[in-house]
Structure formats: structure tokens, C-alpha cells
Amino acid sequence: YGHKLENLEKMDKFLDIYNPPRLNQEEIKTLNRPITSSKIEMSIKTIANKKKSPEPDGFTAEFYQTFTKELVPVLLTLLYKERGNLP
């Protein structure tokens, strides 16, 4: 427990020194909106139209575009399962 308290104190000190920008309530509300299948599909279309090189996961935009119907439910489940834990 002592380690956690020490880390929180260090974090508070850092935030006091650097005073990073804060999100307002509207921004927080926007970021916390549910992720939908249509948003995932739109994202896939966006990358498919702009990028030819592989994504960081090694798959190309063409792969995502070709298998959109199969990938959307998997991605939606993954995003809800990992919500808040994504880098």
C-alpha cells in the first residue's frame, strides 16, 4: 500500500509542476460514447482509402476492407472487452 501512496504523491507533484490540459465535460462525454459497428466500418473505409502499407498489426487496409463483415463483430467485442485498457 505504501508504494501506491508514494506513486500517487509523485503523480500529483508531476501534475502540479506541468499542469497538463484537462478535458472538459463535453470532451469526456464524447470520448465515453459507445463504440458502434458503423463507427468501426467507417474507420475501416477511411484507412482503406488512404493507406496501402500494412497497419501496425501487420495487416493491410485491403485486408480490413475485404473482411469488414467478418472483422466488425470481432473488433467490436474486443474493443468493449478492452475498453479503458487500450494503449
The whole-number mean of residue pLDDT values reads 82
Order of helices and strands: HHHHH
Question: What fraction of residues sit in β-strands?
Answer: under 5%
Based on Cα principal axes, name the global outline.
elongated
Largest sheet: none
Portion of residues within helices: 55-70%
Low-confidence runs: none
Number of helices: 5
> What structural category characterises the helix and strand content?
mainly alpha
Q: What's the gyration radius in Å?
A: 19 Å
The N- and C-terminal alpha carbons lie at a distance of 26 Å
Number of strands: 0
Provide a short characterization of the protein structure:
The chain is mostly helical and 87 residues long. The protein has helices at residues 2-18, 25-31, 37-50, 61-66, 68-82.
